[in-house]
Specification:
Layout lengths: L1 E9 L2 E8 L6 H6 L5 E3 L3 E5 L2 H10 L4 E11 L14 H16 L4 H16 L10 H14 L4 H19 L22 H9 L4 H13 L3 H5 L6 E2 L4 E4 L8 E4 L2 H14 L16 H6 L1
Parallel strand pairs: 1-5
Antiparallel strand pairs: 1-2, 2-4, 3-4, 6-7, 7-8
Helix pairs in contact: 3-4, 3-6, 4-6, 8-10
Amino acid sequence: MVVDLSHIVWRGASYIKITPQGYLAHLSNIVKAIKGGTYHPETGWRIPYDKQSLSLLEAALANYHLRYQKEKQVLSTRQEGFKQKIALTEEEEMAVLKTQEQLHLQRYSSNTVRSYGQHLRLFFMNNAQALPSLNREDVERYLLTKIKEGKWTEATQNVCINALKFYVERVGRQGIDFSNIRPREPKSLPQVLSEQEVLRLFKAVDNLKHRTMLLLIYSAGLRLGELLNLRKDDVLFDRKRIFVKSGKGKKDRYTILAANMETTLHAYLQAYKPLYWLFEGPMAEPYSARSVQAV
């Protein structure tokens, strides 16, 4: 069987396109075994355009007749006006940096700084316009592209708009109107666990520290960050309260300490003896968010 190999350029990057002239069993396994190898509806099977990838492909297809097409072909993308760049320009990199610095100055959370930076980078990568020329049409076209791809929820779209709006108003100083482009909030009912399902959930956790963390989140209505920022002294046993410092919106608040939670907390404190933070890692630092998420 003949297999055509051609040099294509798609979204600014070079690939080797693989086109068998007939059915080629296990082609997907061959391509995916090469780093960067994949399939896309607009390009077909492809691997990176470099000597190592080509050598691996030639070895895997040694029993086939390879026909090399030397003419470079530049493929257009259906995302008109948004041909992805290989890297950000120096001006765009500086815009992302200045935006993140402004977020830090205004004491936004580290998650917000990271999320806004990622959305800005993605927007700039998919936009060919120079920064001073950005307008509402560019934003709308980008959002429509992402919505049609079907990978964004309403929440993700809102975060992206927030990131672009913050950059435009605080850093770029462009006069872009962001009204009427936010998604409508879905009117979905919450999925609530029954009492028996909640009991089974907690009984499945054997580790005392892990079970205490989950029970405290559930009984006191804590967010993950609020749980990890609790100090030993924030649990006020005599007042049946838990002090939450700098919760959502940087606001302090009190929440309840459930009566049946006290016994579990006392058992945990006696077993683990934390020094400062209520839940500590191996070096007495605040417990890792990733670890709690894994639990």
